[in-house]
Every structure is written in C-alpha cells, then in structure tokens.
Design brief:
Blueprint (H helix, E strand, L loop, with lengths): L1 E9 L2 E7 L3 E6 L5 H14 L4 H7 L3 H4 L14 E8 L2 E8 L13 E9 L8 E6 L2 E6 L3 E4 L10 H5 L6 H11 L2 E3 L14 E2 L13 H24 L4 E7 L2 E7 L7 E2 L5 H13 L7 E5 L10 H11 L4 E5 L3 H10 L3 E9 L2 E4 L16
Parallel strand pairs: 3-16, 3-17, 10-15, 15-16
Antiparallel strand pairs: 1-2, 1-4, 4-5, 5-6, 6-7, 7-8, 8-9, 11-13, 12-13, 13-14, 17-18
Helix pairs in contact: 1-2, 6-7, 7-8, 8-9
Length: 374
C-alpha cells in the first residue's frame, strides 16, 4: 500500500507531500488542483511503461506543465518536475528536466534527469536499491554491493521499464509490475456512440477496460467467478427490484436491465447516461482481480444523487481489499464513504497565491520525504 505521494513543480502543485491511507478522497473547489494530483498518479504509472516523457509532451512539453507561480527561479538549482511515492516496502521517485538544446526536433520532450528506488517508506543511503543520475545507473547487489549498469540509458527511457530483470534487478521488476497493476477510470464512456451501448465479442474479462466497452463480459465474469450475490446486491441497492442479464447473441454479449413495471428489459442503448455509468462502475469495483491501486476520477459524473449512496458503499467495500483514490466534487458521496469506510484519508485541496496545499496539513504533519540527487 502507498503511504506517501510527493510532487514538486507540477502546475499548481508547487510542493506537496501527502500521506495516504486505504481509502483516499481528494476534494476541493474548482481549480484547486484535484485534476493535477490525479495526473501525478497517472504520470508515475507511465514511468513503468516508458510513457511519462510522451505524456508530458502531449500536455505541451515540460515547460508548459512546470510551476509558473512567484519565486519560480528563486532557488539556485535546476528547475525540474519531481514526482514520487513511498509504500510500506518500496519507494520510487523521478525528476524530469528541460532538455539541453541540440539538433533533435523532439525539443518538447523532457529528459529524465534522476530516478531512485528504495526499500521501505523513506529514501536513505542504506535503503537505496537503484539510482540514476543522467544516463548512468547503478544497482545494489546483496552479494557484491553496488554495480554499474554497463550501458547508458537514453534520456527518454526509465530504468523501471528498461532495467527490470529477474536476475539483475528483481526489486525493479517487482516494483514495475506492481505499478503496472494500478488501474485508472476516468474515461468510462456513456455517450450515444459509446462502445458499451453496443454488443461486443464476449470473452472472460477479469478487468473492465478503460472505456467500458467490455462491460457485459466483465459483469458475466463477475457472476460466473462466484460474486453473483455481490453483483445482484449492487444493482438492487441502486435500482430496487432490478437485475442485470447478459445474453449471448452469436458470440456477442449484450447487457440487459430488468426493472419492475416494464414488460421487457432495457438494452444498453436505451439506458440513461447515469444508469449506464453506475453499471460500469459496478463492473470496475467488483473486479475479481483487484489491483494494487484503484483510482477513480469524478465517478459521480452523470449520476443521479440517489445513486451516490450505493456507489459510496461499493467504494468503501472495495477499499477493504485494495487501496483506492477517489477524486470527487460530491459532498454526499464523501459523506457516505466517511460513514462506511474504516480507514478514510481526506485530502482537501486549497489554493493560496497560486499554489495548491492540503487543508489542515502542516509541515510537521507531513510524512518524511527526501528526493534523489541528480
């Protein structure tokens, strides 16, 4: 489980070191930095797949995402974007900087200047397992001490993606696979042309896809894998007396919703955006293969207020098995999760002088955190 999330110089996030719990709810006014904190988690996940540099380039390049508030250049040190996390057994941090001008046309791509992986919740010389300064990487070996990687890393390649090896760097491999298991849902489509509104080829689906296209197969998998009662309860709590049915039409699975008072079930093409979105969230939250970390960005979008109670209960139940981060505007959803969850961490963001801070979190209340050196 992640215990700390840290970031410096990303949009309005001048400097944040945030403690995390089992269920974490990020809230705050519009423009307070909620979406930025969500993107930090996505950026960290991208390092495991060598996608962090490209992701920042799509945002306009590093310079357009860096902190642009007052005193930007006050300190006598290179300005870079720093992101990292610490867990109970591993931690990771990286720094990206502006590339040195040269002949390449890819001058919007930032460069990875430093990376570090360590054991335990705090980076210390004694806990360091691997570190990188520029192109040079060294790995700790229990038998031989430190060893240098014999080849230089490209400035756009992460050591998590390039050097994770069961023989040479098993700790990097383990951490990389854990990060790759993180799951994000912020693009569950419910528009008229959403893939979830049309029958799709059915195959066992342990994990709902990011756009929700395979919702029928995911719900049928949940039912057959042994969680039919949980599925029926989640649907009935939201739509009393209702049930879902998955039909197979020549290999294509279709989701039908039976509701009391209707002479026939409704297909996904007939469902309201809110009803379909709730069913998509049910498929995501009842996954038979829970991730290390589940992140939901504004799950209340399009939902009728009456659906926030069963959704909050479902999220709180999911948090008993896996760590969850929820970014939300909905106070009622927060209230339900607060009542139902045993370990909820409220992260209320506020913006002061252009910089995002966490309400009620003073410097002395922050968890210990140290950045790797370049």
């Amino acid at each position: 489980m992640l215990t700390t999330l840290a970031v410096e110089n990303y949009r309005s996030l001048r400097r944040l070191v945030v403690p995390l719990g089992r269920l974490n709810v990020v809230t705050g006014a519009n423009g307070s930095g909620k979406s930025s904190l969500y993107r930090v988690l996505r950026l960290l996940a991208d390092f495991s797949r060598n996608g962090a540099v490209a992701g920042l380039a799509r945002e306009g390049g590093l310079d357009s995402t860096l902190w642009a508030g007052p005193n930007r250049a006050a300190r006598n040190e290179p300005l870079g974007l720093r992101v990292g996390f610490a867990g109970e057994d591993f931690g990771y941090a990286a720094e990206l900087g502006i590339p040195i001008p040269g002949q390449s046309m890819f001058n919007r791509d930032p460069e990875i200047k430093a990376e570090a992986v360590w054991a335990g919740p705090v980076l210390r010389p004694s806990t360091l397992l691997a570190d990188r300064g520029g192109p040079v990487v060294r790995l700790r070996d229990e038998a031989d001490g430190w060893g240098m990687v014999p080849h230089a890393l490209k400035p756009f390649d992460s050591m998590l993606a390039e050097l994770a090896d069961p023989q040479r760097a098993p700790d990097l491999l383990l951490l990389r696979e854990r990060i790759r298991s993180w799951r994000f849902y912020d693009h569950l489509r419910t528009d008229a042309d959403a893939p979830a509104r049309t029958p799709q080829i059915g195959t066992r689906t342990m994990i709902l896809g990011p756009d929700g296209a395979d919702v029928a197969a995911a719900l049928q998998t949940i039912r057959e894998i042994g969680f039919a009662d949980d599925l029926d309860k989640a649907v009935n709590n939201a739509f009393p007396g209702s049930s879902v049915e998955i039909v197979n039409r020549d290999g294509r699975f279709e989701l039908l919703l039976h509701q009391p008072g209707l002479v026939r079930p409704l297909g996904t093409a007939e469902l309201s955006d809110g009803t379909l979105r709730y069913l998509l969230l049910v498929a995501a939250l009842l996954s038979p293969r829970p991730p290390e970390l589940l992140v939901l960005n504004e799950p209340e979008t399009s939902l009728h207020p009456e659906l926030l109670v069963p959704l909050g209960e479902l999220i709180a139940t999911m948090a008993e098995e896996t760590q969850v981060v929820v970014v939300t505007h909905a106070r009622e959803l927060l209230d339900v999760m607060t009542e139902q969850a045993r370990d909820l961490r409220l992260i209320e963001l506020v913006k002061e002088d252009g910089a995002t801070t966490v309400s009620g979190l003073g410097f002395l209340e922050e968890p210990p955190w140290y950045w790797p050196e370049r």
